[in-house]
Amino acid sequence: MSAISESESRVGGYRQAFDQSVNDREGFWLDAAKLIDWTTEPTDALDSTAAPLYRWFAGAELNTCFNALDRHVLAGRGDTTALIYDSPVVGKKKRYSYATLLDKVARFAGVLADAGVTKGDRVIIYMPMMPQAIVAMLACARLGAVHSVVFGGFAAKELAARIDDAEPVAIVTATGGIEPNRVVEYLPTIATALEIARHRVGTVIVKDRPEVPGRAVDHASAGTAWWDWDEQSLTATPRAAVAVAATDPLYILYTSGTTGTPKGIVRDNGGHAVAMAWSMKNIYGVGPGDVMWTASDVGWVVGHSYIVYGPLIAGATTVLYEGKPVGTPDAGAFWRVVSDYRVKTLFTAPTALRAIRKADPHAALSRQYDLSCLDALFVAGERLDPDTWTWATALLEKPVIDHWWQTETGWAICASPRGLEELPLRAGSPSFPVPGFNVDIVDEHGQTVPHLDEGNIVISLPLPPGTLATLWNGDERYVQQYLSAFPGRYLTGDSGYIDRDGYLYVMGRTDDIINVAGHRLSTGSMEQVLAQHPAVAECAVIGVHDEIKGQKPMGYVVLKSGTDITDDALTADLVAMVREQIGAVAAFRDVVVVCGLPKTRSGKILRKTMRQIVNGEDYVVPPTIEDTQSIAVIEATVER
Ligand code: COA
Ligand code: AMP
Fold first, then answer.
1. How far apart are CA 126 and CA 128, in angstroms?
2. Do domains 12-65+272-509 and 99-242 have the same CATH topology?
3. CB atoms within 10 A of CB 6
4. What is the SS3 assignment for 406?
5. Does a cis peptide bond (omega within 30 degrees of 0) precede residue 464?
6. What is the pTM of this model?
7. Which residues face 460 on adjacent strands?
8. CATH class in words for 513-638
9. With a 6 A CB cut-off, is 183 part of the ligand 1 pocket?
10. How confident is the model at residue 2 (pLDDT cuts 50, 70, 90)?
11. What angle do CA 167, 170, 173 make, to 5 degrees?
12. Residue 518 near ligand 1, beta carbon < 6 Å
């Protein structure tokens, strides 16, 4: 039994639900499955026949888009607002009822079908935060096609890697996105990605934005048709929802791994729908008539789950905000949106709160707005530091609930599940494991560690519905990367501890993944880019503490002997290369030239020790170090 399940601190509705999820898994999840409309009802919850790859609700059938739209219209709620679009960057605000959204989705499903997209085909969606991104996702789901949304801040090379892995029939895009300081044209990026990729994409469908130059028609290229979204919609026939197996994939979402190759997280239809419906009710306490605003991006998992699928499956109203927490136009933007749309539940990343706090330390701007509608603020994406938690709690006088999750899990592993029970919160902790997630902290031998000792955070298999089914084209990779270290347990890649009352504390990654402004990035992929520079002999990228973004990448570079390049010129080159090959979102701006990197005698760079030195943490020099002087070299860079 894990330290968590021994805890006596959990009481009432939460404890009952957690215990049932462990002791009566079938009953618990079959009961949760009643929140979904099935074309073939599930008779069993878990299918363990291919363990350690588990499947949920095998034999059942449903359509996720039907659950997100049609069923609410059929229940007479067609006039209810499904989606509110608010874009300070283009100066637009618009409401879509469930009936209107259904109409648009069914028609766009017709456009996709005309492009040859059928059940099981992949479609890449590379779009900014505009309603058509949601329409495209739901239209794929309607046809039983598998979408893969790629965040607009990624460059052509990253997009090409995803095209080659997912092998999409079509790409859906827009002419571009709008960042506060510039317009980001998407079509040249798509064209370059298509040139780099080996896979041939049949059709690119482009939603024209008047604010961004470019037209589909200008990009005719060999083997790929370029269509205009609006033009094709005029002649497309609306499509009905297609029933798919609960175990069929709904989407692939690529995320950073330790190496530069992105991993395609595969989400199924049935387990995901159940997890979304259950979590909306029991974690967030949001249902029909409520407004939920998740201030993230549809390109991230948080956006998939709680901008798009969760709120719509629950029949609530979701807000799609195309803007930033600060600068569009000011640090009062979040409070304006909450007040304007009577948002009940706000979900954002700690970095957004820190950015607001820096611009408006006493939250003076919040006093211009009536925030009485707000029930709770949820945060995730990185650790919510106690200072920011205290600030936000005092400002809102509402619960500020940190909850911990990953792209892989698709929903929260640990939270204070407000819909089940209001549990006391503690600074720095995302509270308790959510029902279905049997969390433990283990040492390197897989032994549970005592309370307060830090170790690897693991989750006993099976993971609950809605978590990753596998990696796209990568069952073996999934098992090797997540399930092999501690057989029978899923390795989260995070380290942390549990206090005596059962509260979990997540302290950081055990691998080379970093979290920059809530964006998950691989330092390995940045190192691959730096290593291509002709002057670079070797390099290491580490995550260093940043006041607003939590972390920022910093490149340590050793030059080839005889190289004649100034530090400034080298930095400019490397920053431009990372921006071009990974994307602006990497926020790579800092380079330090050193005469050597600390390494073990077998040649492994001591990145963890470097990180500890640069971040001012305690560190122990590993006995296997090749040259102790190399530590002084890194220490000297901190003193500079
Ligand atoms: N398309 C194209 N470029 C993008 C982009 C997108 N969708 N999103 C970010 N970028 C670019 C930015 O324009 C910036 O480019 P620049 O170097 O030319 O200035 C770069 O990527 C880095 O962006 P970011 O890390 O977001 O920094 P910022 O200084 O622009 O903004 C914050 C800082 C804190 C305001 C912003 O990061 C933020 O709102 N974070 C919240 C993130 C979030 O919600 N994450 C979801 C996880 S739950
Ligand atoms: P992503 O896959 O982008 O959602 O990033 C997942 C990683 O972000 C996790 O493995 C954690 O390292 C970190 N993370 C997310 N939410 C939290 C949280 N509430 N507290 C601490 N770390 C978090």
1. 7
2. yes
3. 11
4. coil
5. no
6. 0.95
7. 489
8. alpha beta
9. no
10. very low
11. 120
12. yes
